[in-house]
Amino acid sequence: MTIQRLGVCGAGMMGSEIALVFALADVKVRLMDASQEYVDKAMAKLEKTLDSGIGRGFFAEEDKPRALANIETFTDVSTYGDCDLVIEAITEDQEAKGALYKELDKVCKKDAIIASNTSSISISVLASYFSEERQGNFLGLHFFSPVSRMKLVEVISGMDSDPEVVKRATAMVELPGKTPIQVKDVVGFAVNRILFAMWDEAIRLVEEGAATPADIDTGCRLGLGHPVGPFELMDNITIDLTLKVSQILEDAYGDRMHTRPTIKQLHAAGRLGRRYGRGWYRYQDGKRVD
């Protein structure tokens, strides 16, 4: 399935790397965020990602100039009128997403596919922010972090998602080499429900004094074959996002997905993860020091 032009809303870690993988597949991408500062930082980060990947054999030297040339940056969605696919990857907040969708509803062409990269919020609920005629063209495309390395995309159909649109979107995410799986529109979808259930038990072990975060991370890497342990991963995606998703899951499933007290304490203390210098672990210049 050919995409002539892709719009990505949100130039954070997820949005910028979604833009990158499509740019590497020779799609013209428009990347936007609320300020020029944000998009400039995103582009600088993508340059570092490409340089690091070239050094480790993930990308070729010629990939960098080609990918960067395929990405244009903006601070609003007014130029998204000719985009075939628009992917929203802003903060995991229903009202913030809804406000953006109302803007997209006015701008996007009639047959444009619009998708959310939400990791937990119901697609059917998010669709309600669009006009009724637009809701059939809306679905969830949940990429995984880091997008430049992770192959999986959860494709989530809302109550009114057109099956043909879902089929087209599924083909679109295969273009940059991703592997899609179809998931019903349940809060948290498939992978995060499994992940957060595991995290709940991992945090319980720490709260009970049964094991340290470091030992649990080592156990999950060496005993379960995970690339990173649960506490490393929470720090990488931020404690802020961990808490937000955990609370969304708790609202939907009650004590089955209870938010652990320690996550709330870390958040309240400002220990938000790797990029902030402290989370479950301490960091200096992005590297763990304990």
From TrEMBL:
Swiss-Prot/TrEMBL keywords: Oxidoreductase
Annotated site residue numbers, Important for catalytic activity: H142
Every 3-hydroxyacyl-CoA dehydrogenase C-terminal domain range: 188-283
Keyword Transmembrane attached: no
Pfam families xrefs: 3HCDH, 3HCDH_N
GO terms, molecular function: 3-hydroxybutyryl-CoA dehydrogenase activity; NAD+ binding
Domain spans labelled 3-hydroxyacyl-CoA dehydrogenase NAD binding: 6-186
GO terms of biological process kind: fatty acid beta-oxidation
PANTHER family: 3-HYDROXYACYL-COA DEHYDROGENASE FAMILY PROTEIN (PTHR48075), 3-HYDROXYBUTYRYL-COA DEHYDROGENASE (PTHR48075:SF5)
Name of the protein this chain belongs to: 3-hydroxybutyryl-CoA dehydrogenase
